[in-house]
Amino acid sequence: MRGGAVMITIETLVYFLDLGGTFVFAISGAVAAVNRRLDIFGILVLSFVTGNLGGITRDVLIGAVPPAALTDGRYLLVSVLAGLVTFFWYAGVDKLRSPVLLFDAVGLSFFAVAGAQKAIEFELSPMMAALLGMLTGIGGGMTRDVLLAEIPQVLRSDLYAVAALAGAAIVVGGDMIGLSYGISAMAGGVLCFGLRFMAIRHGWHLPVAHLSARGRAGSDPSDDEKPGE
Description:
Blueprint: H1 2-35, H2 40-62, H3 68-71, H4 73-88, H5 90-94, H6 99-121, H7 126-147, H8 153-156, H9 160-176, H10 181-202, H11 213-219
């Protein structure tokens, strides 16, 4: 009985983290939609997609079908609420510094730890659980950017996927050593958000190529000289 109570507590915590991640990711999607001057329907669509596609992808991959976001009306309700709040009170949301990035960082943290724990419950290997936690965190934001015809942040933002993977890895590591999920989730979430926030604030990033292929072609002196000259 005691073990069952603990399991219920973990499932409840994962559920609320999932809903919290859905809400803040949905706000980031709605803010991005308003910035691109979409109408209210487009804002609500982008809110739902951004808030839920990462979790839907996770559930499909682990066999938790149909996905929770499509069977539990609270996911839709939370997404619509986030879209309407942003639509009617955009000025208040926009007062935050880089609101899309900040809400994205919070959602990333929630989804990374919740996604990893749900993968653990479905008995995935530690490595796969960590990777699925990362995928849960980056899926919605990637789809948002694709729908807005932008390069996904995971491919251009500082420590985006790395932060999600680090947070998910803490949850997996905590499970392996028998640490309470509440503690490992908090530690993983704080680490994920901290890495993203510091990356946004101070420009932390992984090494990048300093000269693209196009840049090399443009700077190659042989291109400006004809053979024999």
